[in-house]
Write the structure tokens for this entry.
Amino acid sequence: MKADYKNWMPKGMVLGMLGGAIAALILYIVFGISPVLKAGTLKTVLGIVFLILTVFLACVTIWMFLMYRAFSYNGKRQMSRKIISGVASYVTIPDGGKGLDVGCGSGALTIACAKRNPNATMIGIDRWGKEYASFSKTLCENNSKAEGVSNTSFEQGDACKLSFADETFDAVTSNYVYHNIPSSDRQAILLETLRTLKKGGTFAIHDIMSHAKYGDMKAFADKLKEMGYAEVRLVDTTKGMFMTSFEASWMGLSGSTILVGRK
């Protein structure tokens, strides 16, 4: 049995966009080129509209395919694997301790952290929504078994309102989750996650922490220090750590940063 961490760019989305491009091309041929419509204003307008739509959908399909290839765990680039391993390297849990992975998806980061901390336990939570229907609790559990990891558990949860008491975990982590949550205050979501961290616990949260999505993160890091957090850093992962600046730009990942520190 081999772990299946899926792809951050679901194959169904790529195929769906490809289908849309093909459909638009067929409509262009039927209404813009073939004699189904007589030459005239309507045929010209429809031809232009469907041609533009075809080109647009084709470009999006190519972009999505390149994303799919870059994120593939079995491909050449394997960016997802590199990111998961890199984020997990910041997670340290004492023997007998517990860690929380928010938005665990297919369980990749939860399992990677569990492997690095074999004498601790990792809990992965996710809402497993329809947008990523191929991700599920069962998939996470199967991946743990495939990796020979037994110190993990998975449950459904809401990142905006965690069902855990204050200071429950020795470490909290997350990877590319919060930017997907519609919110005008993602810093509040970060504080909700950090609420569950024990004194002395470590955190490593990787996301697209651009100003547009998160506001002033340097000010937020300073705020954490004022609150008593230590070793707080913002680590830019787009300058060779996980990806190049060019990759981050065309993939829409500019601003990718790990917020790390200790409570």
Summary: The mean pLDDT is 96.
